[in-house]
Amino acid sequence: MTDGIAALLIAGPTASGKSALAIRLARELGGVVVNADSMQVYSDLRVITARPTPEEEASAPHRLFGHVDGAVNYSVGRYVEDARSTLAELAGQGALPIFAGGTGMYFKALLRGLSDIPAVPADVRAKVRADSEGLSPAELHARLVACDPLTGARLRPSDPQRILRALEVFAATGRPLASFHEARTAPLLDPDRCKAIFLAPERESLKVRIDARFRDMMAAGALEEVRLLSERGLDPALPVMRAHGVPGLIDHLRGACSLEEAIARGQRDTRAYSKRQFTFVRHQLPEFRFVAPGEAWASIAP
Q: How far is it, in rounded angstroms, from Cα 126 to Cα 15?
């Protein structure tokens, strides 16, 4: 690898310029852009997740983008296995992996390993999902708190996917999900052999960029993309159905709100998510150095 570096890691909030930087690095260093965004894995959503365009993907090698069907409940564990295979492939080619994305849990799993949580049998998962059908996120959270208050206290009531995961683990093992977090699998990457930066734009300018980009995505066909997803009739608890902008646009397609209301909701949710991205990296990924986007090239290029 370049100068003894095993991988480059580029994190940052949405609309901070991660993809453009990763593609430039890949082209100039002979690297491969590897996705580290939990929504850009889905084949159903390119526009509204700001996945690299076909032209961008053609300009440099890309891996783990759009390779998962929306009906799949793709997890961090599955991402790690896909990343493991990708790293082995790139090592055989002598290519530099350039991980880019906004999902802090993906980077944490790469650098720290995964909590050693037992697999949940398919029949247990199916029963928990069936019993939870039609419940609101708040009702799901209340159900979790009743059986597993330790994990319930750590999860946001507005995060139904992680709540369902905790319910499944408790149903399968009788133990709180949080009790498994200390034991971890071996990490895929050695932090001492990685360069890791977090693109940190000024907050007010980032808000403007997020709002403008959402408008650009609408102009590029986001509504039609969400229409096609909605017509699949997927479980609304699936991750793909909760991508920022998707719930509001589905409500609009069903006549529950105006298009402007759906756009405003998508912009608001994305801005709120960008704040959580800053917080997660600041508190849980000390390996990452915060840099202004304009200083990113000098900070990470070998």
A: 37
Structural domain contains residue 195: yes
Measure the CA angle with vertex 299, ends 294 and 300; round to 5°.
115
Are 76 and 104 in the same domain? yes
Cα distance between residue 226 and residue 218, in whole Å: 10
Per-residue b or e along 168-203, where b marks 16 or more CB atoms closer than 10 Å to that residue's CB: bbbbbeeebbbbbeeeeeeebbebeebbbbbbbbee
String of DSSP letters for 140-152:
HHHHHHHH-HHHH
DSSP 8-state secondary structure symbol assigned to residue 220: T
Is residue 279 included in any domain, yes or no? no
- In angstroms, the CA 258 to CA 239 distance is 24
For 99-122, write each residue's pLDDT tens digit. 999 999 999 999 999 877 777 888
32 forms bridges with which residues in the sheet?
Answer: 97
Question: pTM for the complete prediction?
Answer: 0.83
